[in-house]
Design a protein that fits this description.
This protein is of the alpha+beta class and 431 residues long. It contains 14 helices and 16 strands.
Length: 431
C-alpha cells in the first residue's frame, strides 16, 4: 500500500518519521475509500490534501521539524474530513430498482434509478389510486362513475381541477380528429365488451337491456369452451345513439351530460397515469426511470451511464418480435395503439378493442398499430387511438397538426412515420 502511494506521487524510498507514517497510512486508506465510491468532489479534496503534503515535505527538514505538529494536525483533520465527505457521498449513490406488477387492468413495468428509497411501490399505489378515485367507470366511488350516475339529472357534476383539465384536452382531440376519438363511447364499449372476450370469459355486455346481445350460446362445445354472439347492427345503432362528445357541456367547472350517456376514459387513462407519475418523480430523488403502463411508456431523467433510454415497439404482424426501438433522452411519453392488444377472432375476422365512433364497430382503417411520442401522456394516448381510427393519411395529418412524432404500421407491414420520428427510431435489423 505504501509503495503504491509513493510510486503514484513520485516519492523516493527512505525512513519516514512516525507521524508521517500514520499520515501515509491514512492517505492510502482514504484513497481506496475514494476509489470505491468514485465520487468527484472527495477526489478533488484528496488531491488538494496531497498537494499540501508534498509541499510540506519539500520545504526542508528544519522547517518540517518546526511545523511538524502543526502540519500533522491539519493533515489528520483533512483526512478525517475527506472520509466524512466520502461517506456521505457514498450514502447518496444511485441505486437501481425494478418492478413488475399490475394496475389499471394491465401490466406495469418499472426501472428506476434513485439516490433515495425504492419508489416503485409508491408508483403502483399512485396508479391504483388514480383508477379508484378518478378514472374507473366500474368503481362506484370514482369521479367518472359518479358523473355517469348523475347524467340527465340536470344538477350537473362539479369536476376536480385535474379532471377538468384532462377533459378539455380530450375534447380538443375529439374536435380536431372529427370525432375519431370520443370519450362518450362507453355504451358501445359495454356492448362489445372486448376485454371479457379476450380474457376468455364469454360476453355479457348489455343482456339486461338489449336482449340477446353478447349472450353465450346454449349449444356450448363439449369441451366447455364458450361461443360468442356478436352484437347486431340494431344493437350497435342503439348504443351509438347514446354517444357524441358534442353533447358534453362544462360550465363553471360543472359538467352536464344528457340522460343515458356516459363517459369512459379508457382510451386515455394510461397516458393520464404516466402524467401523474412524472409529476410524482419530480418531487422524489429519482434521477432516471422508464415506466410502462400497458401501451403507454414514460421515460424520465437520464440513465446513470448517460445513454439514451431504449423503448421497443412491438411488431403488430408478429408480436413475438420487435418492429424497432426508440432512443429517447429525458422526459417523453410514448403510447402505442394496436389491434393485437385485446381482440378475438370469429369466423376468421379479428374484432379488436379500438372502436370507430362513426360506425360503432372495431376500426377498419387499414392500420395495425400507431405509436405517438410527445411531451404529454394524455395526448400521446388519445392521439394514438385517434390516429389508428383515422388511418395513415388522415392520422398523419392530425399528428403533424399537433407537432408530435408518429409511426404507423399498415396491414401489409409497411412503416410510415413523421420526419421528426426518423431521428429517434431504428428499425429492427438496421445497423
Amino acid at each position: 500500500m505504501e509503495t503504491c502511494c509513493e510510486a503514484e506521487f513520485g516519492l523516493t524510498h527512505g525512513p519516514v518519521s512516525a507521524p508521517w507514517s500514520v499520515c501515509f497510512i491514512c492517505i492510502c486508506f482514504f484513497s481506496e475509500f475514494l476509489v470505491l465510491f468514485g465520487m468527484v468532489f472527495p477526489v478533488l479534496s484528496a488531491i488538494e490534501f496531497f498537494v499540501i503534503l508534498i509541499d510540506s515535505i519539500t520545504k526542508g527538514s528544519v522547517e518540517m521539524k518546526r511545523n511538524r505538529e502543526k502540519n500533522f494536525t491539519k493533515l489528520l483533520c483533512g483526512s478525517l474530513l475527506a472520509a466524512v465527505i466520502c461517506f456521505c457521498a457514498g450514502c447518496g449513490r444511485t441505486v437501481k430498482y425494478t418492478s413488475a406488477n399490475t394496475a389499471m387492468g394491465t401490466f406495469v413495468y418499472q426501472t428506476v434509478y434513485t439516490s433515495g428509497e425504492d419508489v416503485t411501490a409508491d408508483v403502483t399505489g399512485l396508479i391504483n389510486g388514480l383508477e379508484q378515485d378518478t378514472l374507473s367507470w366500474r368503481i362506484a366511488e370514482s369521479e367518472i362513475a359518479r358523473i355517469n350516475a348523475r347524467t340527465g339529472s340536470g344538477e350537473g357534476f362539479v369536476l376536480s381541477d385535474n379532471l377538468r383539465a384532462d377533459l378539455e384536452v380530450l375534447r380538443e382531440v375529439s374536435e380536431r380528429s372529427n370525432g375519431a376519438f370520443d370519450i362518450t363511447m362507453h355504451p358501445v364499449v359495454e356492448l362489445w365488451n372486448i376485454d371479457a372476450w379476450a380474457a376468455g370469459q364469454g360476453v355479457v355486455p348489455m343482456q339486461q337491456t338489449v336482449a340477446g346481445a353478447g349472450e353465450i350460446q346454449d349449444n356450448q362445445p363439449s369441451d366447455g369452451a364458450t361461443s360468442i354472439i356478436l352484437p347486431d347492427q340494431k344493437q350497435v345503432t342503439q348504443a351509438l345513439s347514446h354517444t357524441g362528445y358534442e353533447e358534453i357541456t362544462i360550465e363553471n367547472n360543472t359538467l352536464y351530460l344528457p340522460a343515458e350517456m356516459s363517459l369512459d376514459l379508457g382510451a386515455a387513462g394510461k397516458g393520464i397515469a404516466c402524467d401523474e407519475i412524472a409529476e410524482f418523480l419530480k418531487e422524489s430523488k429519482v434521477s432516471g426511470a422508464v415506466i410502462s403502463v400497458g401501451g403507454s411508456v414514460l421515460t424520465y431523467g437520464r440513465k446513470p451511464d448517460g445513454m439514451p433510454w431504449q423503448v421497443a415497439i412491438v411488431n403488430p404482424l408478429d408480436t413475438a418480435t420487435q418492429l424497432g426501438t426508440l432512443s429517447l433522452t429525458g422526459e417523453w411519453f410514448v403510447s402505442t395503439s394496436g389491434d393485437y392488444e385485446r381482440y378475438v377472432e370469429v369466423d376468421g375476422i379479428r374484432y379488436h378493442h379500438i372502436l370507430d365512433p362513426a360506425t360503432g364497430y372495431p376500426a377498419t382503417s387499414g392500420v395495425r398499430s400507431v405509436t405517438i411520442v410527445c411531451d404529454s401522456g394524455i395526448l400521446s394516448d388519445a392521439l394514438s387511438t385517434a390516429c389508428f381510427v383515422l388511418g395513415v393519411e388522415d392520422g398523419m395529418e392530425l399528428a403533424e397538426s399537433y407537432g408530435v412524432r408518429a409511426l404507423f404500421v399498415d396491414e401489409a407491414g409497411r412503416i410510415f412515420m413523421t420526419e421528426s420520428m426518423r431521428g429517434i427510431f431504428e428499425e429492427a435489423g438496421e445497423q
